[in-house]
Structures are given as structure tokens and as C-alpha cells.
Amino acid sequence: MKPTDRIFVALDTTDLDRAVSLANQLVGLVGGVKMGKEFLTAHGPEGVRRVAECGMPIFLDTKFHDIPNTVNSAIRAALPLNPFVINVHASGGSQMMRAAQSAVEEAGDKRPLLIAVTVLTSMSDEDLAEIGMQGLAEDRVVALAKLTQKSGLDGVVCSPLEITAVRKACGQDFKLMVPGIRPAWSVAGDQKRITTPADAVKLGADYLVIGRPITGADDPVKAAQMIADELASV
Length: 234
Ligand code: C5P
Description:
Blueprint: E1 7-10, H1 16-25, E2 32-35, H2 37-52, E3 58-64, H3 68-78, E4 85-89, H4 94-105, E5 113-117, H5 125-130, H6 137-150, E6 155-157, H7 163-170, E7 175-178, H8 197-203, E8 207-210, H9 212-215, H10 220-232
Parallel strand pairs: 1-2, 1-8, 2-3, 3-4, 4-5, 5-6, 6-7, 7-8
Cytidine-5'-monophosphate (C5P) is lined by residues 10, 12, 36, 117, 120-121, 157, 179-180, 191, 209-212.
């Protein structure tokens, strides 16, 4: 894998033309594009197909969390879009994750990587206590990562601060998709648990989700090039 293949650029916009244009400009500088709730709600499968014309792998950040049968059907409905990665919430439980896993297996050779969101990076220990989950966020992330692995999934989404603990608990083959990436020259914005692209890879991230440092830059191509240069030096 080339260092830049690790980068999924987050196209967090409802502007379809901008998403298509960004994806086309960034070919060769990032490894793929991520479309999440904002884009998917605005433009659905047609929008995904338009962006996919850039030829890069697609990460459908669906974050499904529902009863097993519904999640199974929703994932099957997404398979014709040929995603490279698709995801669910680990807190949906092992039955829901197994139902999701059995859906991706229907894609055979074209099976997407199925990963799970552990604890949203926006949730603090206090936020978890508020919904009846006592203890440290990191302990919950590790417990949910283990459950995800036991349920047969390929990996998890976790913050840079949890890479080391999840790697230790789940081993080298478990895929870690890491948002909260901020190059030294960029602003943190609302992300709190952050690290640089180079440090995330050194800690053991397989894939990096990077949004605003690229998409919010005056020159997104130059920003992506600077990140590519940083990764090449790792
Ligand atoms: O702009 P920024 O680099 O902060 O974008 C990060 C992306 O990663 C956003 O699309 C956000 O929804 C996503 N994400 C995250 N934390 C998670 C899961 C996904 O920031 N735990």
C-alpha cells in the first residue's frame, strides 16, 4: 500500500458539484473518499455513483444501528454501490454485527471491509455516564473493539488516543480507521482527541479519515500534497 492509500478524505458537504470536483482533484493524492450522513441524506445512491466516477475506493460512513434484520437489509441495499468500506455501530451488539457481516459476505470477491464505530469521539466519560454507561471511554472502546472482532468484523473506527490500546487488544490484522487527524499546520476545530497524520500511522492506524484540513483549505490539492509528503517520510 502506498502511504497516500491510507487516506480517506471526508466529503462532508451537501454540495454535489463540490464533492465531485474535490474527489476528481484529489485522485492520486488520497486513497479514497468517505461519504457520511450529510452527503448520503442529501444525495443518496445517485450522489455516491457520481462521486465514485473519480475511480477511487468509497467508504460509506453509514453508521447503521438498528435491529439485526434491518441492518442486514440496509447493508445488502448498499452493496450495488461497491463500497470498499462500510460501517455500523458496535453498540448495536453482536447479533446486529453478525447480521451485518452476513450481508457483506453476499458480495463475494467484492466484499467491502465491515468496520464498527466504538464510542463516538464526541462522547466524554460524563456523556457516557449520562446514558447509563459508567467508566472510562477508553475501556468501553476496547471492550467494544473486542466484541466487534469476536463478531467477525474487519476492524473499528477509533480516535488516535485509542490506537495503542485497541492494537494491543485486537492484534495486527484488525483494521483501524482513525479520524481526528490534524497536520501540525492545520486548525483543530471541534476535534479534541487529535494527532498528526505521521503520528497516527506510527501509532498503528491503517487508514486515516481527513476532512477539513483538506476540504477546508484554500488549496485542497496543495493541502493533500503536504499530507502526502508528511506520510512519505514516515
Ligand atoms: O473535518 P474532520 O477531519 O474533523 O472530519 C472527520 C470526519 O470523520 C467527519 O466526517 C466525521 O464525521 C468523521 N468521524 C469522526 N469521529 C468519529 C467517526 C467519524 O470525526 N468517531
